[in-house]
């Protein structure tokens, strides 16, 4: 049980090298749906972070009891328990946000980032590693959501997190806060990141 | 024959001339400004995005100019400058270069750009100015004929729709200019006649059926055929050889599908006009239509 990446490696990998959105292409449903503003995007990132951390810790604690053919069921039930907590919490303390996010909070249950981390990391490694992994992946997810949300909200409304940033005369690109804007922004950012990577590795190849 | 991309695009530009002239005649300075903005932005965008792909930009094949002119003609003259620039950049970047450049794109580039600004800046796309040259009015900002009909039930005379002295996007108002340019394209065989024929036929049939069900409606079949962007779309947008089917049968299906979708959108949707969406939807079916209509050689198995 000692093999596999160390906690530090897990933590760093989650942020950029194995970014859940841009590198693993996971959790795209939530990514596309809630990034029309910085506020809902960050709420979603925190919600996913809480569920991911809790689920990773619990799964890691019971990893020796898991039966291979039942493990996905156990993952899902554990995740569902924490998602229900988040859902009720938002409904009680952040009613407007809960309304705005609609079904996407309950849908965290099927967010593949969490199941992926339970399967890849938590069900094989110690509690500490699993927790570091969850925090790293959450930061990576949050950064990805923020990058898309900033572009969409800025172009679509001229605001950031509800505060007017661009001059009031800014002609809002309404399409950016609508679903097509999500696909366009995500696709272009993904292309940009791949392009930067390609340029980088080409340079390294020339040196070596 | 010796038809190259360049001669083909040159023919399209010649065919677009009647619309450009009628746009300048009816919309004056607004038309000139919008067309120049769109063409310049299209050329710049083509150069920029092709460079980004590490290829040499080939502006001499005129395809970027054609996209720019068609895009400019499909926008209202009063739309602010950034609408044209953004539409051209989206048309070139996301409509064409992303797919690998000329000949590789799935959707008509000009319509991709127009769809983007249509949804992004719905306000500036709806208002359009018609400069009444005989009156001492600089500009009349009023609804397009289809919009006025949809919202107020107003009817524009057939003469206005035919000659073009009415409101609308720059290139679509004059049915006469569209017909002249369109027939030239078909005679030169740059555009396949089956596509506009299919569009007009199915529009005629559906509009006729709708008219028969509601005989008192003042918006007749002729209004449907001459009004809006139907003729412009049928001859210049739907016939893009890259994004339309290759087989004659496929071209008929493609054209009739566009006509049917246009009528569906005009009669039942919230939008007054549906040519752009109809063309984009049928573009996405083009590979399927091609597959279904591959001619089977005689004696082949």
Describe the structure.
- The complex is a heterodimer of chains A (208) and B (301).
- Chain A has one domain.
- Helix content of chain A is 70%, strand content 2%.
- Chain A has helices at 7-15, 28-34, 38-61, 71-93, 95-101, 112-122, 127-157, 174-177, 179-207, and strands spanning 159-160, 163-164.
- Chain A has a two-stranded antiparallel ribbon with strand order 1-2.
- In chain A, helix 3 packs across helix 4, helix 3 packs parallel to helix 6 and helix 3 (38-61) packs antiparallel against helix 7 (127-157).
- Chain A starts with 6 loop residues before the first helix and ends with a helix.
- Chain B is an all-alpha fold.
- Helix content of chain B is 62%, strand content 2%.
- Chain B has helices spanning 5-27, 29-52, 63-73, 81-93, 109-120, 122-126, 145-152, 158-163, 175-187, 194-213, 221-226, 230-237, 248-268, 275-292, and strands at 128-130, 140-142.
- The radius of gyration of chain B is 19 Å and the shape is globular.
- The A-B interface holds A 171-176, 178, 180, 184 and B 80, 82, 86, 94, 116, 119-122, 124.
Quick overview of this protein structure:
Chain A has 208 residues and is mainly α. Chain A is 70% helix and 2% strand.
N-to-C series of helices and strands of chain B: HHHHHHEEHHHHHHHH
* Count of structural domains of chain A: 1
CATH topology of chain B: Ammonium transporter fold
Shape of chain A: flat
Strand content of chain A: under 5%
Number of domains of chain B: 1
Q: Which parts of chain B are unreliable, with pLDDT below 50 for 5 consecutive residues or more?
A: 129-138
Global structural class of chain A: mainly alpha
CATH architecture of chain B: Orthogonal Bundle
Report the strand count of chain A. 2
Approximate shape of chain B: globular
**Largest beta-sheet characterization of chain B:** 2 strands, antiparallel
* Helix and strand element order of chain A: HHHHHHHEEHH
Low-confidence stretches of chain A: none
Q: For the record, what CATH class of chain B applies?
A: Mainly Alpha
The average pLDDT value of chain A, as a whole number, equals: 89
